[in-house]
Amino acid sequence: MQSVxxxxxxxxxxxAFSAEAQDAKMKTFIDxxxxxxxxxxxxxxxxxPGSGDIVTGQAKSSDIGKKIREGKVGGLFNIKGVEKIRDVxxxxxxxxxxxxxxxxxxxxxxxxQTTFPIPLGLSCSWDMNAIxxxxxIAATEASADGxxxxxxxxxxxxxxxxxxxxxxxxxxxxxxxxxxxxxxxRGYQGNDLxxxxxxxxxxxxxxxxxxxxAGRDYNTTDMSRLRMFNEYLPPYKAAxxxxxxxxxxxxxxxxxxxxxxxxxxxxxxxxxxxxxKGFVVTDYTGINEMIDHGMGDLQQVSALALKAGIxxxxxxxxxxxxxxxxxxxxxxxLKEIDDACRLILEAKYKLGLFDDPYKYCDVQRSKTDVYTxxxxxxxxxxxxxxxxxxxxxxxxxxxKKTGTIALIxxxxxxxxxxxxxxxxxxxxxxxxxVKPALENAVGANAKILYAKGSSFEADPELEKRGTMxxxxxxxxxxxxxxxxxxxxxxxxxxxxxxxxxxxxxxMSGESSSRTNxxxxxxxxDLLAALLKTGKPVVLVLFTGRPLALTWEQKNVPAILNVWxxxxxxxxxxxxxxxxxVNPSGKLTTSFPQNVGQVPIxxxxxxxxxxLGEGKWFEKFRSNYLDVSNDPLYPFGxxxxxxxxxxxxxxxxxxxxxxxxxxxxxxxxxxxxTLDGKETVxxxxxxxxxxxxxxVKELKGFQKISLKxxxxxxxxxxxxPNDLKFYNGDLKxxxxxxxxxxxxxxxxxxxxxxxxxxVK
Length: 759
What we know:
The chain is α/β, with parallel strands linked by helices. The protein folds into four domains: 1-30; 40-367, Glycoside hydrolase, family 3, N-terminal domain (TIM Barrel), CATH 3.20.20.300; 375-597, Glycoside hydrolase family 3 C-terminal domain (Rossmann fold, 3-Layer(aba) Sandwich), CATH 3.40.50.1700; 644-758, Immunoglobulins (Immunoglobulin-like), CATH 2.60.40.10. The strands form seven sheets. It has a six-stranded parallel β-sheet with strand order 2-3-4-5-6-9. Strand 2 (75-77), helix 4 and strand 3 form a beta-alpha-beta unit. The model has no long low-confidence stretch (mean pLDDT 95).
């Protein structure tokens, strides 16, 4: 044993020595390079313009080409296509004075051409290997097409379903969000950024963007430092700890200062507390937007951003056009420019671009490594794993591949809406819609009858706003009354009805905040009419956010939430509907009963007047007159085609001291007739603290497979590290006392045991 330990120690020492040697080599190289650079060339490295309308073969003649040649560009934003990127890179490394290669960044959010479920959906798999694999495939495809830098993962905690960008994150919980952040960084960056199939991650949006007031995008964020450090900052830190190469500043203000100009965020926390060594880029025109925040003119806000710790200016060109003047006037220092320039050059060095500027420009790879059959199969499997079964009365699901199935709804035959928001590299024409997928699945054994049923929205202008960016529906001249009549005619011929309803893909995502988070009324009217036929109805729900489904939960026999499943969504939906895959997704956001409950999340705190056990209304208690405090579907919730039972919780001890380890176990049994997967969740409550503590916090989870009738004992090891939090002095520590250990199928359905733990 000792010999093994000595070997490990020797390896770690060797690794550290090697890393130090590499850092020294990089420093020597960049020192020499920067000595040759002019002030303007250094500032140019801090400039990240958009690619404009460069086309292959025209890089030289474009305005951006001229700026690259003059050393005024450090990278390009959202340029696509390996041949185009090679043309532009050639200008940088062959025609500029310093011959410094460019970074090429793109919003590769949940896949490249092979598109995985939207991040909120992906998180519901609770499968870190699958999530990492999705990022690995995205990196392989993007790098094959010339991209070396992705603006992902988005790790913003979001607890307000009105905020459209909840679709891009991993839900409401910092523990789960941290695990996913690290998995995504590992997937993108691998273990060697110099390889041509890895890309640099950019963690966003730093920080607290998901807490925008009223769920309105880009809005003000205001919270205590305690809430920041305990609830919102952990996923960003986790991504930094995983080695993320870059960070993106958020749009919102924090403590009265836009994040882009916040020294507290960019320097005090990110660099001094967390030790971040990469570079920080603004979001799109983030510097310029500080003018409207009321922070000064372009020169003032550009200087503010640089001094705060921003290193690269996306699109706005505030750095490019004002920093020289600010330096002359003594408003910034040369060291601040040099420090920012060095970090950009270091990123290029770490990516191996100085050794081979064309390492991402292999045209052959773009033909062989993108949208492969193997990648598509993986995307299909992962999509099916992300779906959440919300209701299944009388085991309507899975469906039989016999008889007549009515497929009705505006999302039944819409390829463009399958991938979901922020699928910028997806070929929408190749996405798999539900209708052909179901037809292929049943073959000649069953009949699929189709009707559109309704528009997305009764208001054409509202529908237009929700179907932007190439997701427009095929125009239909018929009225909603005519569409409904056709749907009912089709429904009356069927044995079962599959209603594909919910949001269009762009009804969630950036700049897609909603105050009404129900299924649009015209679709609810359709659903109500289908239910009146007396036929069994399965609601296949498309959404990029938690929706208020109180009426649907009461009236619809079966509800399968498929989010937006990616380019292979249709086939994955067919797999689950017909039982080829048993659904195992679990919600990562609480679903409210109505919009008046938001923000709603499981890890809330008690008030001084908490509601009594088993009550939903008591006068002079913290509750509503018209609805209970409970969510419609809690965090961690999700059904299966089989059933699971949980034993009582067993603790290795009811009394612990110091750095001892607690073992908590529970036996889970598949009590149904089908094999299935279950995500077993561990929650802890700190019953007494120096500050108020949440009623429960996720501290572990395990996804297990159980054959019908099989039992497994799931064990969690708990140490004092799992009890730590930021106290009133913002010290990260644990406090002795009494704790409740809870294990179960969701945040609501748990078995519990208590213990005391002293220091």
